[in-house]
Design goal:
mainly alpha; 3-stranded mixed sheet; 4 helices; 58% helix
């Protein structure tokens, strides 16, 4: 497998790289062609330019996907923080405020 980045090339050996790429592409709108051995690695600037050049329908699909990914990552971080007890103090503070009657209905 060949990886190109900024005009440089290198080889990745082993089928694990192919399996990893196939799994990632199966979860995305990208198409993985197993006979292709070239992967293009983009910089963030290149990626931004590509996103800016998307057709309106593709941009809408991309933003829906990106919003869903952001929500998924936020949820995972929140669940991790809860499990680690990082929100316990805030929860106790909210319970005290509620029990003392200092909360207002929304």
């Amino acid at each position: 497998m060949t990886v190109r980045q900024s005009g440089k090339s290198g080889n990745l050996s082993g089928s694990s790289a192919l399996r990893s790429l196939a799994r990632r592409s199966a979860r995305s709108h990208l198409r993985f062609i197993p006979f292709s051995t070239t992967i293009i690695v983009m910089s963030l600037v290149d990626l931004e330019k590509e996103v800016e050049s998307l057709a309106p329908a593709d941009f809408e699909a991309f933003t829906k996907w990106l919003d869903a990914l952001a929500a998924k990552r936020w949820d995972a971080q929140f669940e991790s923080d809860v499990a680690a007890g990082k929100l316990d103090r805030l929860g106790m503070k909210a319970d005290i405020a509620f029990e003392s009657g200092s909360c207002k209905e929304l």
